[in-house]
Amino acid sequence: MSEIRPGMSVMGADQHGRLVPDTVLSWLHYEPSAVGEVLVIATASGKRLRLTRHHLVYRLQQQQQQKDQYKIHDRQRHQSGTDLGSAFEAVYAERVRVDDALYDAVSCSLDRVVSIESTQTLHGLYAPLTRTGRLVVDGLLVSCYGTYPSHAVSHAVLWPARVDTLRGRWASLLGVHHTQGIMPYAAHLYGLWTSIDRMSHAIKAGMIAAAC
User: Fold this and answer.
1) One of this protein's Pfam families, by short name (predicted)?
2) What is the CATH number of the domain that holds 70?
3) Which residues, including other chains, have CB under 8 Å from residue 150's CB and lie 6 or more apart?
């Protein structure tokens, strides 16, 4: 991941999980010297996906797994793609469990999680922004986004950072050319969300206290 640069061509995925050519537009998070915790998610095919706890990864929805969809969602069905919204959910990496199924976008198949370990990274933290908002890492489909629990919402609010005209016009405001840390626009959105979330919890606590 550290070798990726803005402007490079990468493999993304559309809403059906099909591989599409994509472009790295900027960095949402670029911190080569960072040392922090990451989860190493190992799959049955031998892949090892490294993500921070609050990075979003695509997992087969729980109700699908309970219906034994390992058999129903076979490779033949996935050859023409699948509806990520109805079959898969983008969840924080910390919510993934052993026996969950991740989406292998290269083979259009499911890849079962066999182990999850917590470790320290000494090689920095990176989160590139692509046009599709998705990225294929070691064959597995992940979101570009983290810290907020919804891929759809994150993709929508970061729309200005993905449109070339706006990127050029509002470059300094968005901070799309930043070279270190978190993209200023993304950092501002996260700060706004945490403030709203904190206020919401305070209101709920007040209502519960009043009811008692």
Assistant:
1) Hint
2) 2.170.16.10
3) 90
Residue 30 is assigned to a structural domain of this protein: yes
Structure tokens at 183: 């993209």
pLDDT digits (tens, 9 = 90+) for 185-210: 888 888 887 776 677 666 766 666 66
Is 150's pLDDT higher than 90?
Answer: yes
Within 8 A by CB and 6+ apart from 169, the residues are none
Our count of domains for the chain comes to 1
| Cα 189 from Cα 166, distance rounded (Å) | 17
Q: Is residue 191 part of a domain?
A: yes
Whole-number Å distance between alpha carbons of 112 and 39: 16
89-117 in b/e form (b: 16+ CB < 10 A) is bbbbbeebeeebbbbbbeebbbbebeebe
Cα torsion 210, 199, 57, 188 to 10°: value is 180
**Residue ranges making up the domain that contains 198:** 9-211
